[in-house]
Amino acid sequence: MTGTDYLAEGRRTAIRPYTQADAEEFTTRARESRGLHSPWLSPPADARSYEAYAGRMIDDPTKAGFLVCERDGGEGGRGERDGGEGGADGGIAGFININNIVRGGFLCGALGYGAFAQAAGRGLMSEGLELVLRHAFGPLGLHRLEANIQPGNEGSLALVRRAGFRLEGFSPDFLFIDGAWRDHERWAITAEMVSQDGDQS
User: Is the model's pLDDT at 76 over the cut of 50?
Assistant: First the structure.
């Protein structure tokens, strides 16, 4: 993956669309990250489920999926990563999806996201989310993004707080996850809350 394939680039990360060619790396990262993700999410961990998942992100006009990739020369450079810290240059650090995109007078979508284990706690997803917000409120032409998060998911809550989302409410029994209906907090951000240079207004 070269810089010209990226939709947007930051200091340490860049975002690009899913491809079917990412199946092996994505599913390997997902299997390595099961302890981190459970019980909050279950990204595809085998080739068949990835093919269907990525296909929806690629083909469905109500979805926009982004892979957050670690850039060449990012903090902790190739030498550190080759020594077992983090992933390879250009490697997938996580993913951020915009689902349920509605156009017309709404111009809104719902966020879903996850970091992979080798990227967790390194600030890569925070930068990746900033890039996605700028892309969503710029080229995608959206006005609002929502994130519904289980109250115990401290990592996800911290991510949206850092990005400038505001808490808008609480939804009991909002989504059926891992065999039960789960309560969620509702967080949102609008284009007016984010300047296109990446700083919260």
Answer: no
